[in-house]
Amino acid sequence: MRAASAGSFQWLAADRPPLKAFVVAVAVAFALPAAYILLRTFQVGALSGLSDTLAPTGRSVILAVTVSAAAAAIGTFFGWAVTSSDTPSIGALRTVLPLALVLPSFVGAAAYLAAFAPGGILHEALSALVDLNVSLFGGEPLGPIRLRGFWPSWLFLTLFTFPYVLLPVMARARSLSGSLHESALLLGRSQFETFFAVTVPQLRPAILSGTLLVFLYTLSEFGAVQLLGYDTLTRVVFASFLADQGVSFLAAAILMLLAVVVVLIERSVESSSRPDARADSSHGAHVSLGRSRWPVALLGWTVVLFALVVPVTSFLLWAARGLVDGRVNLGRLPPAMFNTAAAGLVTAACTIMVMVPVATLSIRSRSRLTAVCTTAVLTGFALPGVVLALSMVFWTLNTPGFSWMYQTLPALIAVYIVHFGAQALGSAENAVRAVPANVRESASLLEPQLLRRFGRVQLPLMRPGLISGAGLVLLSTVKELPATLLLAPIGFDTLATRIWSGYAEGFYAETAVPALVLLAVSGVLTWLFVIRSGFRSRTEGPGQS
Amino acid sequence: MTKRDASRQGSVEADPMFAKVSLAEVSVGYEPGRPVLHHVDLSIEPGEILSLLGPSGCGKSTLLRAIAGLQPLSSGSIEIGGVTVDGPGVHYEPHRRRVGMVFQDGALFPHLTVSENIEFGLRGVDDASSRVAELLKIVELEGFADRRPDTLSGGQRQRVALARALAPRPSVLLLDEPFSALDPGMRVQLRRDVRRILSQVGITAIVVTHDQDEAFVLGDRVAVMRDGRVRQIGPSTELYDRPDDRWVAEFVGEANLITGVLQGDAEVSTAFGLHAVHAPQPGFEAEGQVDVLIRPEHLVVVPGGPATHEGSDRPTVRVHVESAEYFGHDVLYEVTGADQLFSVRSTDTSLSPGDAAFVRYVGPPVQIWRRSTTEG
User: Are B275 and B375 a contacting pair, CB within 8 Å?
Assistant: First the structure.
């Protein structure tokens, strides 16, 4: 669609060269980190490090695949069950289950480490049941339970990522027509068969897009696997970026390659499963689960227990204990909160300013150029934060005139923008769509003055989309760890880095308080910008642009 | 039933799937979003097509869903083909009732092709593919077997939905507002197609609609519903000419209620003369003034006034034209005359508001009710 020549905010008019030039520049900036990594990988001659990266690659792939599968199963089943069935306490489950998203996985893993550590809530509970120091069945005494390796990593990542599938599935299930389900029943299929033969195919696009997010998230996960000692590619990147650059770059390149391959696979599969909007209806599906509705509810609350209640209680216990015996020093909390808020808000504002032009071009003048540009923006999201950070570190150090940026706030915020820009793109596109051509045209007839028109017409209409985009970016920066660790200026503590350093050293009590603050902030933001808006529309949210 | 018997003779594919459907004292209690049903008694003969007509929210779709087993009853019983499928302690699951259903939105499975959709209910059937081919022929979509639902027009989708519902040879077919999602031209065409297909197959069918034309064209009989109750059931002509009350009269068509005076048992006199009266309902007792139903198309405009029609035993009434709605094939005039406001449907399109004219009654015996102003 061509923007009307009468369109306001002239430089934003889609057919104007300045806008195109700006968007192309943005796209180049977003694609730069990937290009730089590839370039350096070949320059350093990193292929010699292949043997060092092979095993971690295998672990990364195994973890990402198994977590994706488990999260897809849990997210799909409960996404459907809490929307379309007669599960008892369905309303509460619908609200509480997505809240597992509140915990960044490294914080969740940390919570479990603290819970199983001597003095932790699960350790206490277990000790009350069995004496951990007495040998059972004549074997070794149980001792403190250590969480290490694949299984804990798999379990915790699944627990804290399944909402990425749950939320889109819930949105899709809500729009499904009940008559599809009823038709299948009348044609002789059981509830169970109908779920797999009719419902799941309808949910498939939502399942796929959610599972892709889980896969990318797991691939790029650093904090949790580091805490749990599961040696994946991100750990290699992080551990060897000073010692052996070649291995670090190669690991980063492999991560990139995996991400790209998976995105391509998802795209090719998704295009063959386009949803049929005409199957949507206001008459929702309501399925009676019969006797199995109680086990389903029980299962749902079990997930809530382990994804939410145990971690939060674990923190509460440590925080209370620390505050009571005075071990916890609250003095370092306010600066960390301030830093987190400042970095997050600046990033959110800058991201919106960068993404609105991209969205304008992608909505109002679709072309191959805009497709390439939006793909570049999505690349930034698909790349692990640790890879982007690595790229930024070496680029600033090795580029004459930019070394001042090393470990400065601008570098950190630039990486945040590249990493999270895609999350704001969908919302920014909604904002642009909210001002259709006829509205812009009638506005230009009624209000001749450009800026005033922008303030009176465009801005009010775009505001919900812009706020939601900014909120999603803010949420992500608050939860971000690896890039912050690598790029934050010396002494620039955020909530995430405070938690991280505390747990890396085993000071559970001291970091339980920042963890709770982080959960509260992330909880509010998640509720406002992910869950609540997910109830309203299904077009928003990361990866759905 | 004569219409249908005639069309069934010589049909290519006679595949009788007859079952009588009986509802006794069926009630459905309050549930958010669904209207209630109050003690509905209904009986559909084998091979009959019944139209369930009523305004939105009257419970007609709930009734259909109750027959399908998708809506639990709070009391009463339903019998299909002699088997009690709903009753005290009895509730057959939908798939055990041998009931086919066509939904308003078609509810085609978007991920399956046309033939896969039709085949969906034929699992375990030996000659499934020949049955699919047979149905594609019946609904005249032979070339569409491998198409996806989203490439079909609305009318084609509904025909696929019909074929899918018929494929497992159900004993009764339920159609829930099957045409309401279509544009007007396509509705008429599909209505004709569905009528033909149902006759050809000879299945017992119930069609829910809020459109009186659809109900009349499709149904051997029509049941008019309101507020969860069946108000009247009968052949279309009976419903139109002899509605039980003024609400039904007005719901199935344009209706004038003219004041009349009973003259003995069999006649009533109005401004339009003396009319024979339909045999009154049992228990009807009225003296003096009554309401007389006069359809607008039974009043004709007399060109040139009373003088030109000497010899007719009916008086002409001088009227004043208040408004005119032009429909192409005719005009609906709103007129005042004999101290009353009423409508006249006429092919004479020459009158304009403000004109004077003469009208006369030309129609069958009339329906009368006790005078009342509160009903309806």
Answer: no
Chain B residues in contact with A269 by the CB 8 A cut-off are none
Structure tokens at A151: 């299984």
Provide the token pair at B358.
């003469």
pLDDT for A415-462, tens place per residue? Answer: 999 999 988 988 888 888 888 888 877 877 777 777 888 888 888 889
Distance of CA A396 to the CA centre of its chain: 27
Give the rounded percent of residues in chain A with a pLDDT score beyond 90. 30
* Cα angle for residues B221, B224, B227 (degrees, 5° grid): 155
pLDDT of residue B114: 95
Res A46: pLDDT: 60
Q: Which token pair is A509?
A: 């009590």
Picking from A109, A238, A189, the residue whose alpha carbon sits closest to that of residue A508 is A109
pLDDT of residue A3: 41
pLDDT at B13 over 80: no
Per-residue pLDDT at B1: 39
Q: Do B107 and A185 touch (CB under 8 A)?
A: no
Locate the chain B residue with the closest alpha carbon to A198.
Answer: B109
Q: Which residues face B86 on adjacent strands?
A: B78, B91
Q: Coil, strand, or helix at residue A57?
A: helix
pLDDT tens digit string along A333-344? 889 999 999 999
Element (H, E) at B65: helix B60-68
Q: Which of A185, A187, A191, A269 to mutate to test the interface with B (most CBs of B within 10 A)?
A: A187
CB burial class (10 A; 0-12, 13-18, 19+) of residue A319? buried
The first and second tokens of residue A83, run together, are: 């929307």
Length of chain B equals 376
Determine how β-strand B356-361 pairs with β-strand B172-176. unpaired
Residue in B33, B74, B42 with CA at minimum distance from that of residue B225: B42
Q: Are B232 and B69 spatial neighbours (Cβ–Cβ below 8 Å)?
A: no
Contact B110 A177 (CB under 8 A): no
Reported confidence tier of residue B117, pLDDT bands at 50, 70, 90: very high
Q: Which residue of B has its CA nearest to A285?
A: B70
Reported as a single tens digit per residue, the pLDDT across B295-307 is 999 988 887 666 5
Which H or E run contains B333?
strand B331-337
Q: Spell out which residues of chain B touch residue A183, defining contact as CB-CB under 8 Å.
A: 101, 103, 107, 109, 164
CA B92 to chain centroid, in Å, comes to 28
The answer, yes or no, to whether residue B2 has pLDDT greater than 50, is no
Q: What percent of chain A has pLDDT above 70?
A: 88
Mean per-residue pLDDT, A22-49: 84
User: Which one is predicted more confidently, A458 or B233?
Assistant: B233
Can you tell me the distance from the alpha carbon of B288 to that of B370, in angstroms, rounded to the nearest whole number? Answer: 10
| Cβ-defined contact of B107 to A279 (cutoff 8 Å) | yes
Note the pLDDT of residue A445. 78
Stretch B20-41: mean pLDDT: 84
Cβ within 8 Å, pair A190-B168: no
Nearest Cβ partner for B68 among A186, A188, A274: A186
Chain B contact residues (CB < 8 Å to A): 68, 70, 93-95, 99-101, 103-111, 120-121, 123, 149-150, 157, 164-165, 168
CB distance A185–B93 less than 8 Å?
A: yes
The rounded distance, in Å, linking the Cα atoms of A289 and B133 is: 36
Q: Hey, are the CB atoms on A198 and B94 less than 8 Å from each other?
A: no
Provide, as residue numbers in chain B, all residues whose Cβ is less than 8 Å from the Cβ of A177: 103, 105, 107
Kindly state the average pLDDT of the residues A165-172: 89
List the single residue in A179, A186, A198 with the smallest CB-CB distance to B95: A186
DSSP category for residue A9: S
Distance CA A311, CA A289 (A): 31
Mean pLDDT of B19-26: 92
